[in-house]
Amino acid sequence: MYPTALTQLARGNPFSAPLFSYQKVEEPAQNLHGQRTRNLAAAAVSEGDSCEFGSNKYYALCGFGGILSCGITHTAVVPLDLVKCRLQVDPDKYKSIGNGFSVTVREDGVRGLAKGWAPTFIGYSMQGLCKFGFYEVFKIFYSDLLGEENTYLWRTSLYLAASASAEFFADIALAPMEAVKVRIQTKPGYANTLRQAVPKMFAEEGIWAFYKGVVPLWMRQIPYTMMKFSCFERTVELLYKHVVPKPRSECSKGEQLVVTFVAGYIAGVFCAIVSHPADSVVSVLNKESGSTAAQVLKKLGPRGVWKGLIARIIMIGTLTALQWFIYDSVKVYFRLPRPLPPEMPESLKKKLGLTE
Q1: Tens digits of per-residue pLDDT, 72-109?
Q2: Rounded to the nearest 5 degrees, what angle is found at the Cα of 35, between the Cα atoms of 31 and 37?
Q3: Range of the domain at 277
């Protein structure tokens, strides 16, 4: 029998690692066709589901949900993103969020607030496809490697690893359009549209112009996405456990989506904080030709990298909540399998002495 205090700690800590190790780990069960069964909680197909959990159709529709969730939301906040970027690269001219909006409208008119919408929509749609689609792929892949018991014990690490793996590829898809967007938004007079900016950037710096920001993007987006997915998954779990007065299986689809939105906003606030310094570097780097990430970081200094944080918290908090809401709504609309919050496997309960 393991100590009760340690058992409760293992069950209650939202960022827990396994506190126990075993000499023997059971192999995942196999079905009649010799395939390993899914280890994520409640992964079975219910009668109302349109496809099998982990099937090609499931991954494809998850990727489509990612396109909608990221493409629509990032495009919707282009005005705020434009002001945020200008605050980061020219703080002497744009002194605050309100001042940034007024200066931009005075110089470029109301239409100027929409600068960069096309590369934003294309770039973040491609990022959403890879981010959400590959997250589902890697989450199931790593879960199968760990086995049922370790998937439960190491679930936070599983979310972190799956989201980091997905974001690595998502940023490669995003980098070209992100570079174009920032150049349009932060260099007045350089170009007003995607069709003007792309050939001009290619003529000046070649293909490097579109990928020189990929490393800072990884620095910004991988921690951001790790926080976004792991914090969301664990927040949903805790909300259903401690806040929502009934199990998720008894909640209506609307009630479930409200929980999704709340958990998404909480995750978004933390996302904005952990990724903001790298976001500042990316903005300045894509504005200035010939600079490196190290040079930009030195130029900005410890205080400069936090310029525009409030605007980014507002933007990312709202953005992340809406992204999860749209993504979950797509799953509901297409009747995709939506596993319940994870529960401790019966075999693990017996090892911990929680059941007879």
Answers
A1: 999 998 998 888 888 877 888 888 888 989 998 998 89
A2: 65
A3: 223-336
